[in-house]
Amino acid sequence: MPRLAFGIAWGLFWALMLTIGVQDHLRQGGTAVWKPLLWEGSSMLVSSLIVWLQWRRAGRLDALLNRPWRWFAASLAWLPLAAPCFIAAVFALRHAVHALAGEPYMHDPWPVVFRYETLKFSMFYLLFAAIVFGLRSHAALASARLRLERERRLAQSAQLLQLAQQIEPHFLFNALNTIASTIHTDPALADTLLMRLAALLRAATDLARHPESTLADELTLLEAYASIMRERFAERVDIAFDVDPATHPCKVPSLLLQPLLENAFRHGVERRLAPTRIVVRARRADARLHLEVEDDAGELPAAPAGSTWGVGLGNLQQRLRTHHGDGASLTLQPRDGGGVLARVELPCVC
């Protein structure tokens, strides 16, 4: 990108110089347009060669960009050699073309020419060095920003993966407890639950390997978990899903809703014999996704002083914060008429 930008600027600069040279020649009464084109064109040709060589060399000096004086000292070290080479090459071309045209190329005495052209070339060289320094500094800064952003995203993905994986043993422990409670009282049901758990764990393991998934995939996993819990508690629980299909493509952190549903069972269904109703809702409002898990029997889990909720909810809070910062929130509040309403709000990205 810096090379392209400089190439465009370089071409425009010499187009301007050629135009000015021709206009000045015509204004002074000259008629042979080829002469100013030769004079400016020879300077353009030789200087372009020098610029090309210096640009290739400039890449080796990028390590000195954070020390400008050393960078300029290294870049200007070639000036004493570049100036006489430029003058010699330019005037050799002009003399050769004029000789081919059958007329001499008239100019000031050589000492005057070398003094004047050396001063002019040095100013040009300094300007060129400053432009190259600016372009390469900007490119280095942009590259550093991209590298930092890439490293930040890799670190974020690693953290999200680690957090998602932490849920697996916690989830497995609770599911096995559910199955263990039915082994002696209803072996056939325990066998059915084990088969469902195996299928569920395969899906959960695949899902947890990705920091994000669609809400549709999340709900499939959640419904599988709910089916296991329905078998265990039978008539003691009624689970309903009230989901707007427009929310299905939205990306959410993996295993987002499972801790909320698990808490509804732990703090609600397991603590009473009366039927408990649980409702899972999903709505989309503009660019925001609103998710709720509501039960009519639970109590808010108490958190130790200075800490957040338990493993599942604390993990969920941290994943939301890592992925969306202040753009996502998790709240638990008492429900009117008894129970708990857990609400998650986050950006809806498809």
**What fraction of the residues are assigned to beta strands by DSSP?**
5-15%
Q: Sketch the topology as an H/E string, one letter per element.
A: HHHHHHEHEEHEEHEE
Helical segment count:
9
Query: Helix/strand-derived class?
Result: alpha+beta
Overall 3D geometry?
A: rod-shaped
Distance between the termini: 31 Å
Q: What's the β-strand tally? A: 7
Strand order of the main beta sheet, please? 2-4-5-7-6
The major β-sheet equals: 5 strands, mixed
Instruction: Give average pLDDT, whole number.
Output: 79
Spans of at least 5 consecutive residues whose pLDDT stays below 50 are 304-308
Q: What percent of residues adopt helix (DSSP H or I)?
A: 55-70%
Radius of gyration: 37 Å
